[in-house]
Amino acid sequence: MSGDLVIRLSDAERMEAVRVLDTAVGDGRITWDEHLERTERVWAARTRADLAPQLADLGPVVAQGEPAQRVVATVSKVIRTPEAAREVRARATFGAVVLNLSGMRPGEQVRVVADAFCGKIVVSVPQNAVVIDEGTAVMGKRGIFGAATGQGGPVVRISGRVTMGNIKVFRGEDRHW
Q1: If I label 42, which of 10, 72, 91, 148 is the partner at 20 to 30 A Cα–Cα?
Q2: Nearest partner of 109 among 58, 34, 67, 50, judged by Cα
Q3: For residue 111, how many other CB atoms are within 10 A of its CB?
């Protein structure tokens, strides 16, 4: 078990988790009954491992008004380590964007909007990450490499369009960039 998962929770962390649940019920992603059940589990949670399952399937939550982090590569290569719990908008045009999300912790969530035209976007995530690819490809490729291990890892939701390019997601040490 990861060392971060055994760290005891503070009331501020529990309140933040309840805020995520409030947003999810407001968005219609969970019912009020689920909200009540999960809120009770959040307040009963002692460690991050206890908390992670209550948030893992909710997808990224971005605070209203918080700007997305933008990463753009045009006929070049750009490597970034974005902040977790934010939206990242990556665009590669005849170039490459490499996003290192391997430092994400269980329960953290990020949305990546990945658009490539004749370019490449590479995303590195932890081995236990839940990766949800909702994007499209036109004369291009999208791939997630490496099997997920364990449960309660961070959630990475990827969308966007790849045209005559590719997007590759690598888990753990399975990086071939």
Answers
A1: 148
A2: 58
A3: 21
